[in-house]
């Protein structure tokens, strides 16, 4: 996880204006950000989170809808007003990834940190798997 954080630090140095970083789930997003906030090896060294913040203003997709519009509006304002730009940490299939315009400077690069596979214990997935297992024709048999 620290390697991913260090890679994102490098992206923030290289990508002008807006950088979007998507995670497979809120839990992975929160776990990564917590790890990066607490990654300083000594009191005199900076954490991954601090090094990202030195390069760009940081925004994180909120879980709730109440704060969402304000966060996105502030991100867009920062892209316009701050020459360093901003980084927006969000979730695949979350609110940020659905229909918001990140054209031109608002989204100069997109990083996808992992594929958002559905949970294997989800009842819909379990049911679909059992139906598919029942319909599989064994090798050598005719349909």
Automatic annotation (TrEMBL):
GO terms for biological process: negative regulation of DNA recombination; negative regulation of t-circle formation; regulation of double-strand break repair via homologous recombination; telomeric loop disassembly. Residues 26-143 form the ATP-dependent helicase C-terminal domain. One of its GO terms (molecular function) is hydrolase activity, acting on acid anhydrides, in phosphorus-containing anhydrides. InterPro entries: ATP-dep_Helicase_C (IPR006555), DinG/Rad3-like (IPR045028), P-loop_NTPase (IPR027417). GO terms for cellular component: nucleus. SMART domains: HELICc2 (SM00491). This is ATP-dependent helicase C-terminal domain-containing protein.
């Amino acid at each position: 996880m620290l390697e991913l954080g260090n890679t994102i630090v490098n992206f923030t140095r290289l990508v002008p204006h807006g950088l979007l970083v998507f995670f497979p789930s809120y839990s992975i997003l929160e776990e990564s950000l917590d790890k990066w906030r607490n990654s300083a090896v000594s009191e005199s060294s900076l954490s991954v989170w601090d090094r990202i913040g030195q390069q760009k203003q940081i925004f994180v997709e909120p879980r709730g809808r109440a704060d969402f519009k304000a966060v996105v509006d502030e991100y867009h304002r920062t892209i316009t007003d701050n020459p360093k730009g901003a980084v927006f940490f969000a979730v695949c299939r979350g609110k940020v990834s659905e229909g918001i315009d990140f054209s031109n400077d608002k989204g100069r690069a997109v990083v996808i940190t992992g594929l958002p596979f559905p949970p294997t214990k989800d009842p819909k997935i379990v049911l679909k798997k059992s139906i598919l297992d029942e319909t599989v024709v064994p090798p050598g048999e005719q349909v």
